[in-house]
Every structure is written in structure tokens, then in C-alpha cells.
Model the fold of this input.
Amino acid sequence: MNSRDIRYLILAITSRCNLNCRYCYMRAGKNGDDMENTVLERAFDLINHGYPCHIQVTGGEPTLVPDKIARAAELSRLLPVKPRLAIQTNATLLTRELGDLFKEYEFQVGVSLDGPPAVHDRGRGRASETLRGLKLLESMNIPFRVTTVVTADNVLSLYKTALLLAGFTNSRGMGLDLLVNKGRAVTNLSRPPAAAELRQGINHLLSTLAIINQRRPHVLRLRELDMLKTGLSGRPFCQAAAARSLAVTPTGRLYPCGQTMGDPYFSMGSVKQPDFRQQPPLTGIRINFKDCQTCPLGDRCPGECPSRIHYNGGNKSPLICAMYTALHSGLNGEAAA
Done:
């Protein structure tokens, strides 16, 4: 891997966060580092300038440092090929000024939302402030999607998240992130759902989305359902698995993806001294589809996040199988057992 291969750049512009999520794999909190502009500029030097790149601004909570968001946006305009800009936020600190910035630079906005207020408060906190942020995005006509960390606590409430999103005309859908056994998820003993609960939660979510989408000009999309329709077909699961992704910490350390940040096993040097001499270990972590011969999906399964395989142990997670078989049954008009 070399600098010309980077197609997906993750900029953790701060390690600080105003929340204290029970399952944060980065253990983000009120203390931490903010990215210096020199680090930010060096990170942009590592992008393949001959291809369109996706640039993901994250943290910690990136809206704690709006000046860094603005600087990243400005640097993106200097690239010879226009990149796709995205930001992942808890939405509690959004302002009209940030909304204007998102519109000017065409940011794709992702919001971390784990369920209706009572559920979200148990896992992350400050649900009312997140909802205020969503209302601000709505008032400014800014499209957004949400990402939900799926745990035993919220799996049966996934459909309620869809119902909440149905009240926002600018919501575009949701994605489901299964719990990663790293960071605070280990110390707080956050529990993943049981496979049967996950199938039940997926079934209810799919039926709810079907009803909601009959009445919406913009359908609420489910990321994992779209992935299933596309299928894996021998392709790497993600840009990190293809050795085309790079995550940069606030101090300038390099890792193959956001979930591996801070783990010495996956270290790839720094923005000053990148170490790309070997392929990142993520490229060799994949589901072995030979073990899936009894599954109706087979090699059409979208696969599993390689870093989640690494941290959760095993060749594959039974929860991935439960999720995609439930989605497959939903696509075929069946109820997953």
C-alpha cells in the first residue's frame, strides 16, 4: 500500500467528546487532543489525487472543533478531483453556522442515534439535544442519515427509531452497527443482542419501514438491506479490507480504519513517517464462505466488518448471519424464524 492507494480518508479531528457513550470503542470523553492544522494538511497529502476520495470527518465529537471542520472543507477544495465529504456527529452541538458549512461544502451528514429518547439516553445520553440537532437539520433542509449501535438494550426498539425518523422529511435512512468488543464496551460489559432477538428486531424494522415508505417522497433506506441487494461477489467488504482506507488520529497516527485507531497492532506510522511497507492486517480478515454452505445466502452475503471480526473473535459472528438471513427473508416476503 502506498499514498496513491488512499480512496477513503478518516479524519478524527478531536479525541474529545461531550458524551460518555457506554460502548465507545475510542473511550472518548471530555479530555483529549485536537488535531493541529499541520497534521490535517499532511493527511491530505496522503490522498490519491488522481481518484475521487471519500473524506469522513469524525472524532470524538467533531463539532467540538468547528474550525477544524471548516479547515478540512477548505483543503478539500484544493484537491484536483472533487471528494465526497461526510461527517459523523452526535448532533448535540449543531448550529446554524455549521449547517451553512455543511450546505456550502455538500457534506453528507450522519448522526449517531440509538433509538427513541429513553433508549438513547441509556446508551449515550442527551437525547433531547440530539433531537434538537435533528430539528435544526430539518429546518435548514439538510439531508441526514443515522447510525445505530445495536445492543441487547435497543434491538427490539429498532422499529421505533424508524418511526422517529419518519417525522423528519430530510431523513434518508439508517445503518446498523453491531457492537464492537473494544474500548468502553469491554469495561461497561455492554451486551450484544441474542440472535433470536436480532431476527425479531430486524423483522419488525422491515415491516415498519415498508409502511413508512409507502407515504414518503424520499424513502428511508436501510444500509444493510442495500448491501444485501448488492452482495459481496468476491469484493472486499470495505475500503480498509481493500487497503485503500486510512484513519488519522488527532496526533497524526495512522491506522487502516476508524475502529482500529489507537491499537498498536494496526499502527501504520504517522503523517510525518507513514509505514506502508506491509499490507494492513485487515486485508486478510474475512468470512470463510466455505463455512456457510447451509446458508441461503452463500457468497452473496455482504460479509462482515474485518475489524469487528478481529475484536469480537472468530471467523464470523452468528449475529451477522442472523441479521442478513432476516433481511434476506424480508426481501423475499418471508418472516425469519
